[in-house]
Write a structure and sequence with these properties.
- Chain A: Its main location: cytoplasm.
- Chain A: It is found in: Cytoplasm; Membrane; Nucleus.
- Chain A: Keywords: Cytoplasm, Membrane, Nucleus.
- Chain A: Belongs to the TEL2 family.
- The structure holds 2 protein chains of 2 kinds.
- Chain A is mainly alpha-helical.
- Chain A contains 40 helices and no strands.
- Chain B folds into 2 domains: 156 residues, Beta Barrel (Lipocalin); 122 residues, 7 Propeller (Methylamine Dehydrogenase, Chain H).
- Chain B is built from no helices and 28 strands.
- In chain B, strands 1-28-27-26 form a 4-stranded antiparallel sheet, with no helix packed on it.
- In chain B, a hairpin with a 4-residue loop joins strand 4 and strand 5.
- Chain B is globular, with a radius of gyration of 18 Å.
- The chains are: A mainly alpha, B mainly beta.
- Chains A and B meet through loops of A and strand 24 and strand 25 of B.
Chain lengths: 822, 319
Amino acid sequence: MASADGEGNVRLAVAQCIKTLTSAKDTDDITKVLRQLLCYLEDGHHGNIPSEQRLEFCRSHYTRVLQALVKGLSADWFHRMTAAQRKAWWDRQFLSGPPDQALLILLDAITASSPSLGLEHLVCVLEEFLRTGRIETLLWSRTEKENTGDSPQFREVVLGRLVGLPSITANKLHPQIPAAFLPQPYCQLLGSAILNTLEKTCQALRSGQDCFLSFLAETLGKACAQGYGALLFGSLAPQLSAHTHFDALWCRVCVKLLENVPDRWMEAVVTSLIQTVDCPEALSRIMGNVALKNTKAQFVITHKLILLQYHHKVSVVRNLLGYLALDDERRPLLTQLLQGVCNAWSNKSAIKHTPVEQQMYVSKALLLCLNLLNAQELEQLHSDLLQCLLSGVQCHLDSNVLLIRRIGMVVGECISQKLDTHSTQLSFQYEPDDDSRELLAMMQPVDNNPASSQSPDPAPEVIVENPPKQSEVSDPPDAQATNSDLDSDDELTPYDMPADQERQKSATPRYVRDCLEGLINSDDADRVAACLWAAADLLRKNPTVTQEVSTEFTKVMLHLEDKYNTLNFTSLRHNTMVALTVTDPQPVTDYLTTEFYSLNYNLRQRLDILEVLALSAHELSQPITKKPDCTPPAAMVTAFDQYSDLVHWKQVVEQRIRSKTKYISKGPSQAPPSAQPNRYAPVAGCFFFPLLRNYDRPQVTFDLLGSDHMVLSRLLNTLGMLVHLAVNAPVVTQMGKALMDFVWALRFHADQCVRRGVLVCVCAVFMSMPSQNLLIELNEDVLDTRTWLADVAETDVDADCRSLAVQSLVLLDKNLKKELQP
Amino acid sequence: MARPPPDPLYTLRGLGAAVNTLHFSCSEPARPLLFSGSSNGAVHIWDLTTRRSQKVLKGHADSSILWLDSLSRENLISQGRDMRVCLWSLAEGRADVTDSLFADSVGFCQCSLMQGGQGTWLLAHPTDCMEEVKVIELPTKAPLGSLKPESKLGMVMCMKLLQTNSGPMLVAGYEDGTLVLWDVSQRRPLSSLKAHLEPVMSLDFDPSRLKGVSGSAEQTICSWTLDGQQVLQLQEQVELVNPGISQLCLRPDGKILASAGWDHLIRVFGWKKMKPLAVLQYHRDMVLSVTFSDHQDPKQRMMAAASKDERISLWSIYN
C-alpha cells in the first residue's frame, strides 16, 4: 500500500516537474525543478527521498524527464542559464541516472537534432558521459544483476547504441567529430571498461556474489562483428594474457565470457582474439576448452581459419595450432585438423584450381601441424601422411608452376623425415629460395618465452668486450714485425693482368667450315669448347659462308649435346643458333619451325627452338641504324626538301595542339615510338605462320594439346612476342587474326601457364594490330572477348592471369575508343 | 687503377727455328750484344743498337743449341745436343771454335758456368750417366769431381753453381722434383729438398740473400732458402694459372724474378715476397727462355724472352 502510494507520489511530482519544464519562463522555477529532480538521482541532497521512490523514478520516469530536458534545449530558460548552472543542474541529470537510458536519450537526441547550440551541448554531455566512466557503470550494472526487468528489445537497442556509438556520431557530426568518438579511442575506452568490469566480477565472485557475463559477452561479440575486433582486442588481449597468467579465477571468468558469446558472433570474436594474442599459451588460458564446447568455435578454429581462408599471418596459424596442441583434450582436434589439411594438400583438383598463395598457406599449416605431433599420433596418422607423401607430392611435382613443385619437394622431404627416421628419406635437388626457406622455417620451433630471451643478454656483452683489448695488446709487435718486413716489393706496383687466364688447349677455329667440322666430329672436349666459343662471332662476321651452310649448322647445333660439361654451354649454343637465324633468316626459320612439330625431339630441344626464334626476332626487330651511308647524294637533296616541308607542317600542327591542350595526368607522354625500318618485318611471316601449322596433330612423342602443356605455354608466349615485334609491319594484321583464332580455343585451358600465355597473346595482338583492322577482324567477337576477359580478371586463381586480363581490357577499350570517337 | 701491361720494347725475328736460349753481353764500352741459340743449331749474334743480326755461328752441326754463356767479352761457350760443349773466340771479328769438350749427355740439362779465380772458371755439365754431374775447371779442363746421388732421383734436369764462404756449391734439380745441394770440393750432398711433384725444369739462386727459386712442369713456383747449416728449406709457393715453367731468371739486382711459361706468357714477380707483378703477353707459343741484360746502367737493363714461335722479345720493365 505504501509502495503504491509512493509510486503515485512520484508520478505526480514528476508530472508536475515536466509541466514546469515545458511551460515555465522563469529561470528560478526551472532551477528549483531541476534540483528537485536531482534529489531522485543523487544522495546527500536535503529532503531525502525513500529508496523505493528513487527506484520507481529510475525505472519509469527517468526517460521522460530526460526527453523533457532535451526538448527544453531550445527554450529561453536554457539560453539564459550560465555555463556553470547548466553544468550543475542540467548536465548532471544525464550523468547521474541509469546510464543505459541516458545513453539512448543522448544518442537519439544527437541523431534527431539539426546543427545548433543544443546539439553542441549534447555532444559535450556525451563526451562527459564517456569521460566519467558511465560506460563501465552501464556494463557493471548489467553484470551485477542478470535481469534488470527490461525487455529483450530494449537490451538489443542498448547493445546496438553502445557498440555503434562511433558510427552513429560520425554519421551526424561528420567533419568535426570529437576525438573520443573515433573508433580507436572509443574501442580503447570500451576495452578498458570491459576489463574493469571483469576485474569487478572477479572481486564479486571472491566475495561470494553471483555475476552474469552474458551482456558483456554480447557487447564483445557485437563489437567484433562490426569490425572493431582488432582495435578492441589490441588493448584487451595483452591485459587478459597478463591477468590470466597468475590468476586461475581470471581464466575461468575469461572462458565463461567466451562461452557466453552468441553463436552468430563467435567467429568474429575467436578470429580477432587469435590474431591479436601473442602466444599459444596465452590463447589457451583465455579460451580454455571453448573449441570443444562450442561447435561454431570448433568449426572456425579447425576448418575455416586453415582451409577456407589464407590471408592470415603465420603467427595466427602458429597460435591456433599451438593452442590445440597444449591440452590433451584438444589434441584429437589437432589430428583431425591434420587429416583435413593432408586431404586438402594432396587434392589434385585443389592444386589446379586454388591460388598458389593458398597452397603455400596450407603447406605451412601442414608443416606446423606435423611439428606439433608426438610419436603416437604420428603412428596413428601414418596412413594419411603416407597418402599425402605418395599422391600429394606426385601431384605437386606434376605442376607447371615452379613454386608448387618446390612446395611439393620441401613438404615431401619434411613428411618423410617425420615418418621414418631409420630408413632412407626423400631428398630432392632444388635451389633454396625465399619460399622454400620460409617453409623450412616452419619446422623450427619458435621460442616465444620473453623471459628466456631477455635474461642471457647481459652476459655476452661482458664476454665480447674482452678480446679486442687482448688483441690490442698483442697487435703492436706483430704490426712492427710486418712493418719491418716491408720491402722493395711494395715499391713495384703491379700491372693489370688480363692475360692471366686459363689457356685454351686447342686453337680457336678461323673458318666457319672448320668450326662446323670441329662440332660435328670432334671427340676432343677442348676443340668443341673452342668451336662453341668462336662460333657466334665467326658466323656473324662471315655472312656469305654462313648462308651456304646455315641449315646444316643449325641442325648440328640443335642436336648438339653437352657431352663435355662445357662452361656456359646452353647460352653459347643459343647464341650460335641466334647468330645463324639472324644471318640467314628464311632457310633457318623454315628448318626450325618444321623441326618443332616433327618426331623424336625432346622437350628441351623444342623449347630451345622457341627461345631461339624469339631471341632472333627480337634482334632482327632492332631498327637499322646506318642508313644515310648508302643513299646517293643526288636523291638526298630532293628528299631533304620534301622531308623538311613535312616536318615543318607537322611541327606547326603539334604546336597548335600543345598550346590548346591542358594535360591533366603527368604520366609518360603517350607519343607512340616512331616507326623505323627493321630487318624483321619482311620475314616475320616465316617466323610465325609455320608454328601455327600442325599444333593439332599429335605425334607419338609430342602432344601439344595434351600432356605437353609446358611447351604449349612457351609456344603461346613466343607467338605473342613474334606478333608484338611485328608491330607496324603490314603482315601484323594477318598474324594477329591467325593468333586470335588459335588462342580462342585455348581460353579455358586447365593449366594456368597456358592461360597466361593466351592472355599474353591477346595483349600482344591488342597492342600491335592497327585499331581499325582489329575491330574489323574481331567484329562480332568483341563482346564475347570483353566478357571473357572481365570474367578472367575477376575470377581466375592466378594473380598474373588476372592482371594480364585487366591490361588486355584496358588495351581493348583504348582501341575501341580510338576507333569509335575519331 | 692498375696500369695495362707493357708491350715489348722491340722484337727480333727471322731466326727460322725455335729459340732455346739467350745470353746478353753488354759490358761497356763495346756495343751491347745478345746471343741466341736456336733449335737448328745456329747461334745468332744480335747487335742491340741496330737491332740486326750481326753474325750467325754454326758449330754444332745442325743440332739444337741448349745453352750459351760467355767467359769474357771475346769468349763464348755453347752447349749443343750433339753432346759437345764448344768454346768460341770472337775477338777481332773471328768466329772460330777454339776448343771443345765431349760431354756425352743426350739429355736437355743445361750446363752451369761460374768464375772461380782470375782467369779460371768452373763448368758443371751433365754426362752420359743421366743422374751424374761432372765439374771441371776451365780452361784447363781438369776434372774437379763427379756428383752422383745415391738414392734414385732420376735424371738431372737443371743446375746452378754458386760460390759460398765454404767453397763452391751446386744446386741441382732432378726428375722426381727433388733439389739437392752439393758441396763441389768434397763431392757430397749437403741437403736435399723435395720441392715439386713433377721434374724440376729450372732454378735460379740469389747468393746475397741465400735464397733460390725453382719451377717445374706443375702449376707452382717454389722459393727456398739456405740456412746457416747449409740446409735447404722450403719458403713459399706461388700458384700459377697454367702449368709448366721453362725457365726462371732473377734480375742481377735481386728485385724481380721472371718466368718463361708453357702458356705463352712471361710472368714477373717481386723477388722478396714473390708478389705477382705482371703477366706479359706477346708470344704465340711456349716461351723457352727468359733472361736479364748485364748493362752497367740500371736504366738500360732489359729483359729478353725467346719462344718456340721463332721470335725474341725485348722488354723494359721496372727500370
